[in-house]
Amino acid sequence: MRIWALSQLRCVGRNADAGPCRGRLAIAAEPPPREAGGELREGAVRCESCGASYPVVAGVAVLVRNPFRYFRGFYPFAKGYLADIGGMSTPFEVWLHNRMLADLEGKKDKLFPKPQTYDERIAHPLHKWLGTYLLTHYFPPLPSGDAILDDLLGACHRQGPVRVLGNMAEKWAGSPELGLDMGCSVGGLTLRLAGFCRRAIGVDLSFEKIITARRTLLREPCGPAPLRIYREGISYDSEPLPDFSVGNIEFVVATGSDVPLDSASAGVITSCNLIDIVNDPFEVLAEKVRALSAHGVLAMSTPYLDHATAVTQHLEAGTGDPRKVVLDHLPGFEVIEERAKVPWLLRASDRHYDLYLDHCFAARRAAH
Ligand SMILES: C[S@@+](CC[C@H](N)C(=O)[O-])C[C@H]1O[C@@H](n2cnc3c(N)ncnc32)[C@H](O)[C@@H]1O
Ligand SMILES: [Zn+2]
Question: How far is CA 340 from CA 72, 101, 287, 359, in A?
Fold first, then answer.
């Protein structure tokens, strides 16, 4: 965790009245922090108001309301992943274990619920969908050997939602102090925000994606492994990722329905293809409204996946018009730019692409 990020990040705990705490965070004395070059590599941050503590594992701050329960959900996977990149120190691991044990709520509560084991064959860099996001965020389309197809792939790349949202955000937001990218995945759009915001923060609920974003853009706790580009079946070529080291960017594990930022603190918020896959889309929209500054710009995209629970149960809400429902949940906002069908192309292998057509828009509070 970049130490400068402490000035921006806030507690996601609850205060005595069950309202949001949003206290300031500071490096905790326990477990012993490991710091180097402006980075908290391992340790915890503690809320100065309510005392809640959040682990920082291999540089990744886990800022969710119950971080030890979050960790229990995939601890065997995390241990396996971290063993490949230097692991955890013994005092830290003991502390984390104790906190996970203290979190058990009763005899029937399992220490490691639904364990997802670490398997080198499916983990980064082999994890196909993680690789797919790295490809769409950081690489031009790979030549297919067919001119017509290459035209299509090139057009989708040039006009894809990461690029369109980045352009909309930059065009309307000016040069704000802070940009927030919600559901950032491996960080390509956050990187774009870092180009015109003083600082940019990406949040995603996936530890694996956040650590991949940090490895790719911050080279912390180490540089990224080569990307495997799948060809046919499970055959692949390896490609190094582009060489980045960006100073004004940070990534943390957090949910879009409880963003670890102060209210009105972000001058621009982006979210690319998030709203239709969350359990609580209205909470995510409310958090965007809360965290955005008075003059701030929101730029978001979604394909309104027709089979996604968020769409069928919430965003259509009996209207059959999820776009309208989303806009209704941005009270007082006006749309300042909109694109109806932005091609979002995801490449799994030479023979497998998924194509969605996104709705993209930028909006801000109407008084402007
Ligand atoms: C469909 S992907 C889109 C990723 C990236 N924005 C893009 O368009 O390439 C959705 C991302 O949201 C993350 N995610 C899912 N639920 C979330 C939540 N409640 N809060 C934050 N991120 C979430 C997933 O881990 C995933 O990285
Ligand atoms: Zn707190």
Answer: 41, 49, 24, 5
